[in-house]
Automatic annotation (TrEMBL):
Organism this protein belongs to: Tichowtungia aerotolerans
Molecular function GO terms recorded: carbohydrate derivative binding; glutamine-fructose-6-phosphate transaminase (isomerizing) activity
Compartments where located: Cytoplasm
SIS domain span: 40-180, 209-356
Keywords on record: Aminotransferase, Cytoplasm, Glutamine amidotransferase, Repeat, Transferase
Coiled coil regions in record: none
Gene that this sequence comes from: glmS
Protein name in the entry: Glutamine--fructose-6-phosphate aminotransferase [isomerizing]
Phylogenetic lineage: Bacteria, Pseudomonadati, Kiritimatiellota, Tichowtungiia, Tichowtungiales
Amino acid sequence: EHSGFETFMLKEIHEQPRILRALLEKHVSSEGQVLLPDGLSSDYFRKLNRIMIVSCGTAYHAGMYGKLLMENLTGIAVETDLASEFRYRDPKIDPGTLVIAVSQSGETADTLASIRMAKDWGCRIFSICNVEGSSVVRESDAVFLTECGPEIGVASTKAYTAQQMAFALLTLSIASARGNLSPAELKVYLDDLRDVPDAVHYVIRQKELIQKIGEKHHDGPSSLYLGRRFNYPTALEGALKNKEISYQHAEGYAAGEMKHGPIALINESLPVVCICTQTADEVYEKMLSNIKEVEARNGRIIAVASEGDSELAKLSDDVIYVPAVRDEFSPMVNVAALQLLAYYAARARGTDIDKPRNLAKSVTVE
Ligand code: M6R
């Protein structure tokens, strides 16, 4: 049933390198151009000045990642919101805004309601979706299909990394269409993006080590996940995975917000998962000082670190080393470690991993 894996979720985690590779192959031409989805032209993107991304749950975390990438590389102002909030606010959106909906199922009620509203305002709708023929796809002007195959596990894994890859590809194509990236720069980014599938595979091959760490920390009442910048959404997604399948309370936080509240939670029994792989990124040093603050309060530090970073091993109780990839693309690699960490914590707690209590795969009512 699960092709030799004990659950669908574990199978789907393992499918990620292949899916990411296939997306790269399909969307990058032999001349090294990133192809735009049908219905969206370079000319359109040259004139565009605002993007609004709407989605729920894990797809919202993908949207947060997409926003960070796009605003960084395309020069377009990008906002993101939860579909359930977006639909009840007054976002002052005009027909010149491109609305991007992200959804695995394409049937999420709030996401659908949001795009219907945006259509009424005259906006174009682009969706990143996994199910061809779903409502979101049918109601969009242009679509990027993530083509992961059916995702059966209620906790989303492969759809998430495929959504991130979709944003990475889309960002590179928009940035080159707008002249923000020269052909030579685009080539460098694409070469770096091509490192991602193998890096994810490398993380998955460390599952026995991650299992030990997951089992060691599975029994506490709560855990904290910290990240910054591109890996702030990774922290939120890691905490969500943990909550969903292990029923252990987990909170994702922007590490810089620690002093504004969550630091009060830290004691010797609180596992704090710190995503700190961005050695070239200006936020790496900031992350490091946040980790030192946790250490000073005897928190149990589980670090996700770049290979070769021995500094972090000194500060941490446990380290998951991941291959160093370009900072912008590291969230796809890092989240694989957090998916497995949540997986093995849940397994140790004996929950129904593929069908966690109270959750539906697709939330078709508000
Ligand atoms: O099908 P969608 O991507 O629109 O679903 C959105 C959320 O319901 C979904 O990501 C949910 O949060 C998952 N259970 C997360 O693992």
